[in-house]
Design a protein that fits this description.
Layout: H1 2-30, H2 36-65, H3 69-95
Length: 98
């Protein structure tokens, strides 16, 4: 069981590293240059607030209420993210953004 846990932890860290660098790299292509500083600040504040101040207490509360509920909320958040990505792609296609 320990080798599997190590493999999953390694994969999660590797994917997390790719995500952290890609969200910063994608920002200049999504935001006009004059607004880039404000957008970068908002992205960082959102990341810190969600990852450090909001996520752990809410996750703990959900786990104590029902042990399956954090996983259900996580799955729903992924579905919501996918819907937003599809809506953004549809909007970008209608606007003629490459």
């Amino acid at each position: 069981m320990e080798p599997l846990l190590c493999a999953v932890a390694f994969a999660a860290a590797a994917v997390g590293t790719l995500f952290d660098s890609s969200d910063q790299a994608a920002l200049p292509s999504l935001v006009p240059r004059p607004l880039l500083s404000a957008a970068n600040s908002r992205l960082y504040v959102g990341t810190v607030m969600a990852g450090l101040f909001v996520g752990p207490p809410v996750g703990s509360w959900l786990f104590t209420s029902a042990s399956w509920s954090p996983f259900a909320v996580d799955a729903l958040s992924f579905l919501g993210s996918a819907a937003l990505v599809l809506a953004f792609e549809s909007f970008a296609f209608k606007q003629g953004v490459p």
